[in-house]
TrEMBL record:
Pfam families in alphabetical order: DLH (PF01738)
Domain of life: Bacteria
Protein name: Dienelactone hydrolase family protein
Gene3D superfamilies attached to this UniProt entry: alpha/beta hydrolase
Taxonomic placement: Bacteria, Pseudomonadati, Pseudomonadota, Alphaproteobacteria, Maricaulales
Domain Dienelactone hydrolase: 22-224
Native species: Alkalicaulis satelles
Ribosomal protein listed as a keyword: no
InterPro entries in UniProt: AB_hydrolase_fold, Dienelactn_hydro, Dienelactone_hydrolase-like
Key words, A-Z: Hydrolase
PANTHER family for the chain: ALPHA_BETA-HYDROLASES SUPERFAMILY PROTEIN (PTHR46623:SF6), CARBOXYMETHYLENEBUTENOLIDASE-RELATED (PTHR46623)
Amino acid sequence: MSGTKITIAGPDGPFSAYAAGSGPAIVVLQEIFGVNHVMREICDDLAGQGWLAVCPDLFWRIEPGIEITDKTEAEWKQAFDLFGKFDIGTGLKDIAATVDYARRAGTGKVGAVGYCLGGQLAYLTACRTDCDASVGYYGVNIQNRLDEADKIARPLMLHIAEQDEFVPPEAQAQIKAGLKDHPHVTLHSYAGRDHAFARVGGAHYHAEDADLANTRTRAFFQTHLK
């Protein structure tokens, strides 16, 4: 199932998003590569499962419509440059606007799922918005945002890659210690897995653990959004 480009009215101006499907909504939060083929395929897959999937262009203030891959050194350099210029606070305002749009366009309830940068944003979406349920895959820098954990009032699931090159063991230990007893948070760790183990076609893709994480995510959203 393929989707279409839409426009969302944000607090700082309109920005584009990719949308597919119908039903309860899931906001898909991008990696550092923009709303690229990988993100659109995730949306299309969710649409095929009976969801309205919406992936906002969170880099629109820096370079609207950017979409790159993880296949070349030049693209990695470009992606990290975008990541360095990205402002978390303004990005969360865009996510909140996307959640509001998705709540109106769907059937009422809204979830969020994010990867890499989007994994951190999924955590912060649980902290700062009224999103009904959030899931983060191998989120970066969450250990630096644990002071916001007391704001989490709705279900949050985090998938942690134990060999994540961008989230070292000490950071993972901080995340687990800070969140393991939180009543709204569920943590899953994947031994031997590196960053982006769920990205189909990526260097660290691991089909078995990607399927396990995605199965857990589907069940989580079925429980909390339907």
